[in-house]
Amino acid sequence: MTVSPIWRTRLTTIVASALALWFGAGLAQQEYFWPILIAGVLTMLTLSRLLRLPIDVILLGMTLFGYLAGNRGFAQISLMSQFPLFPAEFVMLATSTTILVKCAFSRDLPVRREILNLTIFAWIAICSMRLFFDLRIYGFLAIRDFATVYYTAFFFIAQSLAREANHRRWLHSCLIAGAVGMLMLYPLVEYFPGFFMDILTLRGNPVIFFKGDLVGTMLIAGSLLVYHRLEKSKPALAVVASLALTAVALTTNNRASLVAMVFVIILLIVGRRWRFAGTQIAAGVVAVIAILFFAHLTNTPLEQTPLHSTYERAVSIIDLTGERRYTGDNTFFKGDNNRFRLVWWNAVVNETIDGNPWLGLGFGSDLASRFVTEYYPEQGEEFETRSPHSVMLSIFGRGKRTSSSTCQKVMVLPGKVRKALLAIK
Q1: What's 197's DSSP letter?
Q2: Burial class, 67, CB count within 10 angstroms (exposed 0-12 / middle 13-18 / buried 19+)
Q3: Does the chain have fewer CB atoms within 10 Å around its N or its C terminus?
Q4: For residue 209, what is the DSSP state?
């Protein structure tokens, strides 16, 4: 039985009108899941046809761009108001499903028979068994802490989707576009915070919100990636873009980016790949000379130049006990920050060794509870951070808490310093 063109048009119009009303009512109630899902599927189908790429590869690349350009703001977007379905979780479910289906048809395993793959897979399996027992005690908190483990699935997802050259080119392009987007948006967020925090929001949360330490680290990574992607085809653009990304990264007051940059430069020199390292070093020398010359002409004290702030950040990296005194507006708390972390990390290590050194304390426990008791005995304000600012220590100590832990007692810091420490992300 065939339907005439007129009735096909009428039926299509009726269905489309009903869907439009349903989507409109959902949008009015801030229900974005189905409208975004339908619009996303149509967009993915169109892009897949235009770019000649699988939908899962396109989806992963666009998510990489979103996490770089939108940063913490993009990461906290929830597609559903009743249930926290974030972009990472949605993409993980969608791409892993397509990969498993492809592996089923090709009779292949998504995990390669290599030491790294098998080690990560074994770690995930052990942690998953541990989660089964922790769920009964901590419920949703255990699942929240388990994110450190299940996000590792992206290792296998990216490895599987990046096997073909055109897929890798797309993913690299999305990473570069995200780094450039971050380079342009980060200064705007700093100068116009009201627009991004109060106007460009979704359910009261900013769509674009940059976390300073993430920005610094990702910009340094973007600097390296941009340079090596463009150094042969567009060498001048590679130098300019790379140095711009590095320069903005150095303004973020992030110390991890300094360590990462120095480490990468050393590795490149050892590997006899001199161009990127030589460009960064030469640019750094020129910048230092220019700043010193300008400071001399304007009679500006060295302590008021960017060199002093960078110097204090670099020195604070090796000041493990935090005994050095820092005077910069953006570095005065670095010593206290080092002591803060050292005491917390010692507390986590001691508590885990006393409780369960082999399997950790389990998912769901508050690794800051005993630390706050010892470090802030008069604590009146809430301390919301539950993990010790270290992925490795979170992995080592996460889980069921015990009371058999010890922690060094230290003097309580002044209120101004304490608030500065608590603001550190």
Answers
A1: I
A2: buried
A3: N
A4: B
